[in-house]
Amino acid sequence: MPIISSGLITTGSESRLSFKTGGIVSKIYVEEGQSVVKGQLLASLDLTEIDAQVSQAKNNLEKTRRDFERVQRLFKDSAATLEQMQNVQTGYDVANQGFRIVSFNQQYATIRANSGGKVIRKFVNEGEQVSGGTPVIMINSAGENDWIVRIGLADVDWVRVKRGDKAVVRTDAYEDIAFNAVVSLINEAADPISGLYLTEVRIDKGNRKLATGLVATVEIVTQHK
Q1: Nearest to residue 35, comparing CAs of 110, 108, 115, 109?
Q2: Is residue 137 within 8 Å of 33, Cβ to Cβ?
Q3: Angle at the Cα of 73 (from 72 to 77), degrees rounded to 5?
Q4: What is the pLDDT of residues 74-132, one digit of tens each?
Q5: How far is CA 190 from CA 104, 106, 153, 196, in A?
Q6: Under DSSP, is residue 70 helix (H, G, I), strand (E, B) or coil?
Q7: How far apart are CA 51 and CA 62, in angstroms?
Q8: In angstroms, rounded to a whole number, what is the distance separating the alpha carbons of residues 111 and 133?
Q9: Helix, strand or coil for residue 47?
Q10: N- to C-terminal Cα distance for the chain?
Q11: How many CA atoms within 13 Å lie on the side-chain side of 124?
């Protein structure tokens, strides 16, 4: 007897992309539903403050470098103590690390697509203030045909299903079409709230298009009674 359940169609890889550092969103270059390629620029921060921090850190690094070189010469002439030279060397090392940090933040003041796919949601708009790590754009791997349905199975059904079992997926968007599918993931632990075991069924969509959020009915054909 087949196991029948329902769930939402999504992709195996959904990414909530964010800036490493906070700031004001200067530009969002994509719209929801737009296809993107890996490495494509999606959004950027206003660099006024970040560029100023980089310039300040660079000037401080140059100053501490000059101080270090001057004290080195004095130390060689016995006009400076070892402690003095070690102190300015520490100051130079700290300034160098600070410059590397702000330069790294400057580099990641943009968001680029980590894979090919589609933009399925924008969480913020241009001109908004965001903090580091706040999701700005969500993309999925739709371009890679990585479509799945996530369903929850009761324990009596969970024991009957194994990876590789064949399944059939139907959705209202294609009333007369049954998509071939296969069980690709079965969780070993139940969800603490629902008590169901999360199971993923991977869809062979062929040449038809799917979208995240479509409601689907899944019929798993299992050999276990």
Answers
A1: 115
A2: no
A3: 115
A4: 888 888 888 888 899 999 999 999 999 999 888 888 999 888 888 888 999 999 999 88
A5: 41, 43, 9, 5
A6: helix
A7: 17
A8: 11
A9: coil
A10: 7
A11: 26
